[in-house]
Every structure is written in C-alpha cells, then in structure tokens.
Amino acid sequence: MHSIDSPTYRPLVPACADHGISRSVAFELARNGQLDTFTIGTRRYVYLDSLRTLPERLARTEVAAR
Fold first, then answer.
1. Helix/strand/coil (H/E/C) assignment for every residue in 24-63
2. Which of 19, 50, 56 is nearest to 33 (CA)?
3. Which of 4, 22, 43, 53 has the fewest Cβ atoms nearer than 10 Å?
4. Shortest CA distance to 27 belongs to which of 13, 39, 42, 47?
5. Beta strands of the chain (E only): which ranges?
6. What are the contacts of 11-19 at 24+ separation with CB within 8 A?
7. DSSP conformation class of 16
8. Residue 1: predicted pLDDT
9. Are 25 and 16 in contact (CB under 8 A)?
10. How much is the pTM?
11. Are 46 and 13 in contact, with CB atoms under 8 Å apart?
C-alpha cells in the first residue's frame, strides 16, 4: 500500500531516465503498450508500478517468444 506522500505516477521522461531508459526508448515502450501511461494536457505520465515491473514483464515476453 502506498502512503499519501508516495507518488503513484511521474512524468514519463524523468521517471524513465531515473531507471536508465532514454527518452526515445521510453516513448517506444509507451507506444507499444509496455508501459502504462496517461496524458494530462500535452504531458505524458507513467504509473510507477508499471515502470518497476518492466524488467520482469520484458523477460517473460522474451521467454515466451522463444
């Protein structure tokens, strides 16, 4: 459970940069539906749980593709 002070989402580019993901890859992941995102006005945000679980989901996808 998240506390009131714990954010559940952040702007896409800075959040991804904190995880070592470049701007172009961040938008590609969002476009492909691999990151759960939403927009407010013109700014795109990512749900942090989606970003945290990305490595496991990518690994499962890779194993399934074999």
1. HHHHHHHHCCCCCEEEECCEEEEEHHHHHCHHHHHHHHHH
2. 50
3. 4
4. 13
5. 9-11, 37-40, 43-47
6. 11/43, 11/44, 11/45, 11/46, 12/37, 12/44, 12/45, 12/46, 15/46, 15/48, 15/51, 16/46, 16/51, 19/51, 19/54
7. H
8. 53
9. yes
10. 0.82
11. no
Divide the 66 residues of the chain into consecutive groups of 10 and give the mean pLDDT of each group. Answer: 77 97 97 96 97 94 83
> Cβ(53)–Cβ(34) under 8 Å?
no
Residue with tokens 């194993």: 63
pLDDT of residue 64: 85
Amino acid found at 23: R
